Amino acid sequence: MKFKHLVVTATALGAISAAALSFAAAAPAKVLAIRAGKLVDVVAGTVLADQTIIVTGERITAVGPTASATVPAGAELIDLSGQTVLPGLIDMHTHLTADPMQSGYAALGVSDIRAALFGARAARVTLEAGFTTVRNVGASGFGDVALRDAINDGDVLGPRMRTAGYAIGIKGGHCDNNLLPPDMNVTDRGVADGPWEARAKVREMAKYGADVIKICASGGVLSKGDEPGAQQYTLEEMQAIVDEAHKLGRKVAAHAHGASSIRAAITAGVDSVEHASLIDEQGMRLAREKGTYLVMDIYDDDFILQEGARAGMLAESIDKERALGQLQRDNFRKAFKAGDKMAFGTDAGVYPHGDNARQFAYMVQYGMTPMQAIQSATVQAADLLGWKDRVGAIAAGKFADIIAVKGDPLANVAELTHVSFVMKGGAIIRR
């Protein structure tokens, strides 16, 4: 009798659950009408006055002049008529699970679990700063994959994420851990030497949830014992990685400071070159010919030089940045002027998360107009992500990822550091 009662109870609960699900499925999507005083059309590169955006559920369903807009009955009105409205911003080079104040040897005391929990906070402040999408290019313990999934499941507040898992590099290179003595025999999980081992590492990253493959083609600034300008992976190894990644439907981002590493990475077919500090004219020409994006983090030099020692960065790292930072900014100007494709990326995690928009002013200082800088963080970043159909512009069919500022970012791009309204997928995050 007791067993029969349990069966009946379970059956009743199942019926109730099914009814609840049926009701939820039948419930109409919430409709919002956003009135924008000014709307930045990043596709056309223009600013439109007095526009109305209709949002149904998580998508934009209509955009047009307020005077002729048809607002559905019962729609909730959001009045941004005194503000400038833009698409949610995209940062193509982040490390959300990295704490910038735990650098150098201090980082050895941070467990993968602690880093992932730090990432939950970093994700929230990044989203609140108006960055509704990020590409995370390297995290230990697949912490960025876990963070992405937690955001997608609604457990954590954060931006849309494309993740890399571990960055792949040579033994002893920028993507290895060189802080510990040899008797400890520590090698980072992303290390792979030789074409076939590198192919296997791409497969491992894909297996455990990486959306994009990150490689270290050259030495780096914040690593011990290597030179940023020195090439690490060979052309043959990079070709194997790119071939395997593309075969598996993943794009490849290459950390590359040195001129030869940049040329080899582009020749191998990577989709983007990160940092590109010492890019030469041949590298710029190759990037244009191949359609390769450059993602140049020209803000964080300030943080490294001003706060690096307090954050625990090695003295050699600060010296490397001092030698490299201005060269990178000058080459940003040259590459942009030459016509290379640029996507916005900041290396967030080297500096405090949420300060991503500080880079816009530097991009304008080194050659872009405010509109071009904004486009690098919207339509161009969306193109590099492979998400042009989803994000990067305010248009019917795309996710309702929308931000607003009270000032005019086309007159002063630094206005983007003071975002007053943030919406992600139709949900209001900041108001």
TrEMBL record:
The keyword Signal applies. GO terms for molecular function: hydrolase activity, acting on carbon-nitrogen (but not peptide) bonds. Transmembrane segments: none annotated. Residues 84-428 form the Amidohydrolase-related domain. The keyword Hydrolase applies. Residues 1-24 form the signal peptide. Keywords: Hydrolase, Signal. Pfam families: Amidohydro_1. This is Amidohydrolase family protein.
